Amino acid sequence: MTQPKKRPRSSKPKSSRRSSEGNSNSQADAGDVANQNIDEHPLQLKHSIVVRYRDGSRRLATIIERSKDSSDEWQYYVHYNEFNRRMDEWIGISRILSLPSEANALQLDVTKADEDAEDAEWESNELKRLKSESSSSVSLSQGPTTILELEHDEHEGMDDAALKEHEEVTKVKNIRNTQFGKHIMECWYFSPYPKEYYPDGPVDMLYVCEFTFRFFKTKDELIRYQNKPGLARHPPGNEIYRDMENKVSMFEVDGFVEKIYCQNLSYFAKLFLDHKTLYFDVDPFLFYVLCTHDERGFHPVGFFSKEKYSDLGFNLACILIFPSAQRKGYGRFLIAFSYELSKKEEKVGSPEKPLSDLGAVSYKSYWASTILRVLRSYPGSSLSVMDIAKMTSIVTEDVIGTLQQLHLLRNMNGNYIIFAPPNILEDIMLKFPVTGIPVDSEKLHWAPLYSSDPRKDKWSIKAKRDSSAADIL
Question: Which of 16, 220, 301, 336 could join 325 in a cystine, given CB atoms 3.0 to 4.6 angstroms apart?
Answer without folding.
Answer: 301
